[in-house]
UniProtKB/TrEMBL annotation:
GO molecular function: hexosyltransferase activity
Protein name per UniProt: Glycosyltransferase
Keywords recorded for this protein, A-Z: Glycosyltransferase, Transferase
CDD domains: Glyco_transf_WecG_TagA
Lineage top rank: taxon: Bacteria
Annotated organism of origin: Mesorhizobium kowhaii
Length: 264
């Protein structure tokens, strides 16, 4: 099921298009209910999150942008909130960043589910699985493979997913690899909800620290991450955030407001 079909199924039709990518404007509890309904009805739906970094990548990578068009996209972070306010006069109802939303969704889902984990290092994936199993005891968590596999191993991994057929498949390979991998390899035979979760397994394992709660409440987690990993993340945030906002301003004043920002 694609983004638009999932929206229709939910009875919700509030979309905010950010740089050409339709993002669902939905409250936290409604998003939990929607994902539970999709699982209950076995409606295959690819899920991802849009933040400033992903939007920048999609603006310059048409293959990634095309793949995202077939995902249910939830809003992640202050960047897309600022964009929504600038373009539509109001931010998204809630910040559904995957690091907080996915564990909360699993905790709130009362029906026992099988959840597959794919990505990160084996150690981090196992630690994340143990953390999730303690958080949501009603579910079964299965580590399928780490994220560092060769092309030769790929078919076996896909076969294992099909054999397990989890209700939820958490794919943690980083952007855009995880979304492209889901788009190319995963369909209704393999699982119901494949969710692209970025660094979630690293966060859950404790290998990558999270910002203090006060920073998260002030929407400054990106700044904390930048101070922890400046070498890896400076370009994403110091260059990427202003570039994202520039693209959004260009969208706002272009003749076709739904068009993707064309600044490369």
């Amino acid at each position: 099921m694609n983004m638009h079909a999932a929206r229709t199924a939910s009875g919700l039709d509030t979309l905010k298009t950010i740089l050409g990518i339709p993002v669902l404007a939905i409250r936290w509890n409604d998003a939990v209910s929607l994902l539970n309904r999709l699982i209950a009805e076995r409606r295959f739906t690819k899920v991802s999150f849009l933040n400033a970094h992903n939007a920048n990548l999609a603006s310059t990578d048409p293959v990634f942008a095309e793949a995202l068009d077939d995902f249910l996209i939830l809003p992640d972070g202050i960047g897309v909130d600022l964009a929504a306010k600038l373009l539509y006069g109001a931010p998204f109802p809630d910040n559904l960043n995957g690091t907080d939303f996915v564990p909360a969704f699993l905790q709130a889902s009362t029906t026992p589910l099988t959840v597959g984990l794919l990505g990160a290092t084996r150690v981090n994936a196992e630690a994340a699985s143990a953390k999730l199993a303690a958080l949501a005891v009603q579910h079964r968590f299965v580590v399928i493979h780490d994220g560092y596999f060769s092309a030769a191993e790929e078919a076996g991994i896909v076969d294992r997913i099909e054999e397990l057929r989890p209700d939820v498949l958490l794919v943690a390979m980083g952007v855009p690899r995880q979304e492209l991998w889901i788009a190319r390899h995963i369909d209704a035979r393999h699982c119901t909800l494949p969710i692209a979760v970025g660094a979630l397994l690293d966060f859950l394992s404790g290998a990558v620290p999270r910002a203090p709660l006060w920073m998260r409440r002030l929407r400054l987690e990106w700044l904390f991450r930048l101070t922890v990993e400046p070498g890896r993340l400076w370009r994403r945030y110091v260059v990427g955030n202003p570039l994202f906002l520039l693209r959004v301003v260009r969208q706002k004043f272009s003749r076709t407001p739904e068009a993707a920002g064309g600044i490369h």
